[in-house]
Amino acid sequence: MTDITQLTGQAFWLPVIFIGLMGLAFFIYAILDGYDLGVGILLPHDSEAQRDQMIASIGPFWDANETWLVLGIGILLIAFPSAHSLILFHLYLPVTAMLAGLILRGVAFDFRAKAPEDHKALWDKVFQAGSLLATLAQGYMLGLYVMGFEQSFAAHAFAALSAICVTAGYSFIGAAWLVMKTEGELQRRAAWWARRCAWLMTLGIIAVSIVNPLVSDTIFNKWFGSSLFIILLMIPVFCFVLLFIVDRYLRLFPYPNDFGCWIPFASAIFIFLLSFIGLAYSFLPYVVPNRLDIWQSASAPESLMFILYGAAVVLPTIILYTIFSYRVFWGKATQLKYY
């Protein structure tokens, strides 16, 4: 690990800034593309009208949401090139599977609207399959990352559990999105989906919380050997409080005048945020667990400074566009039309 006491000025701060920007990009991606991946996974086979309504709820947003994944990986490649090479070396196959899933989604989304009526159900299934493949791959990658890319049966078994639970997490936030954006029978069905997916997501949070300290003495000491232990304990506590609130709210759903329909989605955002904070605290300053820290893997300070000027333009532009698009298409989902 780098001796940070020997680092000064730009050599210290620029890698910190870029790891923060990368974390922000991946967090926003998990929220925004997370819900539309979840909606894709949840597409029902028994109602074309409900599938149309679900697709309409993500139609104006889903493609732009993937911008954050491109931004996050781009920052990893440019700002931390040696870490990018090492991570992709271990994750080549699941990354390939994720990209295949995202491609299937893009093709199916357009084809379902333009293909003959009797092919529409097929493209809906392709969209669902692509969504499921992408989320399983992302969950598997997260599990291998948490295990430090260890090549053992236990590591791959945990990665498989992580794949299932991340898929449940995306399905949960997707169902919460539908509770907020839809009405009628689909909204009630989404509330039922959200409760079930939240339980499985809880299993994933518990599993990561247990495995994280066990696979690394450094992580164990950061959590349990720190004077901040009581404060850190609030992270899982708040997660479970939010999950309890969502479960109680959805148990009595629906409410008159659509009261509190935003509560599940807002709670999902905070649960994701707390989970990201927990992971960041566990692994920082490492980019590759126990191998490369942010200063070892960073590009030259001169290169990072040049890139930072570009990021200062690109990032606010993406944020403003995202805010604008959600403001324009706010409210309940209506029929998605192509002319």
Taken together, the total number of domains comes to 1
Mean pLDDT: 86
CATH class: Mainly Alpha
Shape-level CATH architecture: Up-down Bundle
Notes on the structure:
By secondary structure, the protein is mainly α. It has one domain (13-328): Formate dehydrogenase/DMSO reductase fold. Helices cover 78% and strands 1% of the residues. The protein has 13 helices and 2 strands; from the N terminus they run αααααααααααββαα. It has helices at 10-41, 48-58, 62-65, 67-79, 81-114, 120-146, 153-181, 184-215, 217-224, 229-251, 263-283, 294-297, 301-328; strands spanning 286-288, 292-293. The protein has a two-stranded antiparallel ribbon with strand order 1-2. Helix 1 (10-41) crosses helix 7 (153-181) and helix 8 (184-215) crosses helix 9 (217-224). 38% of the residues are buried.
Describe the structure using short key phrases:
13 helices, mainly alpha, 2 strands, about 350 residues, Formate dehydrogenase/DMSO reductase fold, two-stranded antiparallel sheet
Can I get a quick summary?
This protein is 78% helix and 1% strand. With 339 residues, it is mostly helical.
Summarize the helices and strands and which ones pair or pack:
Layout: H1 10-41, H2 48-58, H3 62-65, H4 67-79, H5 81-114, H6 120-146, H7 153-181, H8 184-215, H9 217-224, H10 229-251, H11 263-283, E1 286-288, E2 292-293, H12 294-297, H13 301-328
Antiparallel strand pairs: 1-2
Helix pairs in contact: 1-4, 1-6, 1-7, 1-11, 1-13, 4-5, 5-6, 6-7, 7-8, 7-11, 8-9, 8-10, 10-11
